[in-house]
Amino acid sequence: MGLFDDLINSAKDIINETKKAIKDGQEKISQSQNNTESMEDERFNNPPAPLPAVAVQTYLHEKNAQFMISSDFTEFGGYASSTISLKYTAEHLGLRDDITISLLEGVGDFDEIADCIEEYISSKTVSDVEQFTDFPDGKYLFKVKLSVSGYTEYFYVLRSDSTDSYDYDIVLLFYPSEVKGTNLENKLISCLDEVANTLTI
């Protein structure tokens, strides 16, 4: 019986040590996740105030176009249909993708934006989007916020008489969806709104 008791006690010790190791591992994983979330909160929920706006000039259909944009953004290559694109330069964010504001001459490869315009042309509204605002007059038809494949697009559509949805010009903010619902998103949207409100052609 003594040997059997020793075996049982040894087995209990092994089980207890295994349970403790598992618990310690789970606590480390939980702590790591909390640290990651805390870092994301710091990155996305405590962005610095926008830097002073500067004037940017470009061309849209061979006409002079100008707008004001926060100095947080600097010019970069952009998309095929961009007349100008500017990238948010906060490198410390560690995002896998760029945050950009662009003036697009036509929709280009953004088929989902063309779909929104086509729906608006036929019905004067846009459905199945996160945000839609119609403008009865002025330089814009509407603005929309929608998510597509891990990204968020917030854009204004300039007024046009074209019947082809791909011919409409766009002021676009493009960013990874991991930024959604944070103070950084609010900052980015305010920067895009400033671009849209100050755009002259």
Q: What gap, in angstroms, lies between the N and C termini?
A: 95 Å
Q: Characterize the biggest β-sheet.
A: 7 strands, antiparallel
Tell me roughly what share of residues is in helical segments: 25-40%
Shape: globular
Radius of gyration, in angstroms, nearest whole number: 26 Å
Structural class: alpha+beta
- Poorly predicted ranges: 29-39
Question: How large is the count of helical segments?
Answer: 3
- Order of strands, widest sheet: 3-4-5-9-8-7-6
Work out the strand percent.
Answer: 25-35%
Q: What is the mean predicted local confidence, pLDDT?
A: 83
SSE string? HEEEEEHEEEEH
Work out the number of β strands.
9
How does the SSE layout of this entry go?
Blueprint: H1 2-45, E1 53-60, E2 63-70, E3 73-76, E4 82-88, E5 100-104, H2 111-123, E6 131-134, E7 140-148, E8 151-158, E9 170-176, H3 183-198
Q: What do these coordinates show?
A:
By secondary structure, the protein is an alpha+beta fold. 36% of the residues lie in helices and 30% in strands. The protein is globular and about 80 Å long. It has helices spanning 2-45, 111-123, 183-198; strands at 53-60, 63-70, 73-76, 82-88, 100-104, 131-134, 140-148, 151-158, 170-176. A 7-stranded antiparallel beta sheet has the order 3-4-5-9-8-7-6, with helices on both faces. It starts with a helix and ends with a helix. The chain has 3 helices and 9 strands. The longest helix is centred in the first third of the chain and has 44 residues, at 2-45.
